[in-house]
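pls ignore typos typing on phone
pyroglutamic acid + seq
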Amino acid sequence: MARVLFTGFEPFGGAAVNPSWTAASLAAAEPPPGVRAEAVLLPCVFGDSLTALRAAVRRTEPDLVLCVGQAGGRPDVTLERIAVNLDDASIADNSGGRPVDEPVVPGGPAAYFSGLPVKACVAAVRAAGLPASVSQTAGTFVCNHVFYGLMHLIATELPSLRGGFVHIPFDPAQVTDRAQPSLPARCSAEALRLIAATALTRTEDARISEGAVC
Ligand code: PCA
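k done
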């Protein structure tokens, strides 16, 4: 039976909830057929988040890791394509940390590509009637930090592990007083299940354009 580790984040930036944790837990509670899944909550803290991720990977020995974060303001589920070796925080993390222009891994490569077939995953989510796209940047805050750390772990220590990062929109309950895009966390959870199932069954990506002009 394939093993999948989903991770979500605790709330950050003064928010009360983070739908990435809701969605990750829902996806793990009802995983795709033939999959054993677990969800782990990561602190929204530079450094500690990666320590927690590494411990969870060692403990659960997954075949696939899907790290999930909230990208407030985005209208759809986004499959992150590239992790960069850069921490540059525009807000403080949950321990007050605010690194500026520091590498995630000193001496590491500038960037890693996702280990997921991101376009095939986008196509699978869309086919289920949910909005999705490829994102060319996961930012330079804690989500990119975790994404880069995950890909570095895979590249340097666990070559048979597959993994990547998915950003999800706000849940509607977070934006009742703001004109902001949102997607119910249970829909994001369904997208995560589809992404896991797709990533477990194919390594070749789909040949469709998901590029950006600028
Ligand atoms: N989103 C933030 C960090 C935690 C989260 O859910 C980010 O995109 O970096």
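The chain has a mean pLDDT of 97. The domain at 2-201 is CATH 3.40.630.20 (Aminopeptidase). more later
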